[in-house]
Specification:
7 strands; alpha+beta
Length: 178
């Protein structure tokens, strides 16, 4: 782990993270780089974290005593159980320091090695070059552009759809069984 990330801890999010997560997601840079609305109330963040949906997996990044990022996997159900959508955000003061990379590595490890997912997908603003580079680094490819998809600062912006496909995990047979 780079020296800049010494002491970084990744763990499951819990209800006790509500205050810090609410502050994080209301930061101007986080809002600008995501589809989040401004002025999200703390009650909404608490409700989100209290939801114990087994198909939602949240990993937070903690540096010292400060919550500096979160990544969420939203696993599909039924005929889409093989895939998950991803949402990620990093504290304004910690961008470019490897927190997003550590969160994406944890999310893809969870998806590949524990959930057996075959597809991960996300949307990103076409002008968010740093995020696009991060996603490409983790195997995501450009799949298309949704024109005039989201409103940011009173302007309709294009959004890049990205996806990552993996082969199904290999099957391991017990010793001596054919």
């Amino acid at each position: 782990m780079p020296d800049d990330l010494a002491g970084l801890v990744l763990r499951a999010a819990d209800i006790g993270d509500a205050d810090a997560l609410n502050r994080l997601t209301n930061l101007p840079g986080v809002r600008y780089g995501t589809l989040r609305m401004p002025f999200t109330p703390l009650s909404a963040t608490r409700t989100m974290l209290a939801n114990e949906d087994p198909n939602v997996h949240r990993i937070v990044a903690i540096m010292g005593c400060k919550l500096v990022g979160i990544v969420t996997l939203f696993r599909g159900v039924d005929r889409t159980a093989h895939k998950a959508g991803i949402g990620i955000c990093v504290h304004d003061a910690f961008t470019g320091r490897g927190v997003g990379n550590a969160l994406m590595a944890a999310a893809t490890d969870l998806a590949d090695n524990w959930l057996g997912l075959r597809r991960l997908e996300l949307d990103v603003s076409v002008d968010n070059a740093a995020a696009i580079h991060l996603y490409e680094k983790h195997g995501f490819e450009h799949e298309g552009v949704k024109r005039a998809d989201s409103l940011r600062g009173g302007i309709l912006e294009d959004v890049l759809m990205m996806g990552r496909l993996r082969d199904a995990p290999p099957r391991q047979s017990p010793e001596g069984v054919r």
